[in-house]
Amino acid sequence: MAFTLAFAVILALLLSNLRIAGDAERLLVLRFGRFHRVAGPGIALLVPFVDRGIRVDLDEVAPGWRSIAAAELEARLEDYAMRLPPG
What does the alpha-carbon distance between residue 46 and residue 21 come to, in Å, rounded to a whole number? Predict the structure, then answer.
């Protein structure tokens, strides 16, 4: 009985921290409120109670932005995430 309960709790924690980013999305992973990495597209597993994921849509068009390559966009996202205030 205890094993089943422990297994259910661990499974629930793992499944609640799975994030899926689509083809035109990236996931900014914050660990303890500071930038850790850019994940995606695909499945990303976040550490429970430690990581937080912020979904960024790459198809979103902002006024005044020119078309840029995917590598440059990821570099800009990492730069932006490094400047986020903690918390």
Answer: 13
**Number of domains into which the chain is organized:** 1
* Domain, as residue range, for 60: 2-82
Beta-carbon contacts of 50 under 8 Å, excluding residues fewer than 6 positions away, are: 31, 32
Full pLDDT tens readout for the chain, 87 residues = 888 999 999 888 888 889 999 888 999 999 998 999 999 899 999 998 899 999 988 887 666 666 677 788 888 888 888 887 775
Q: How far apart are the first and last CA of the chain?
A: 39
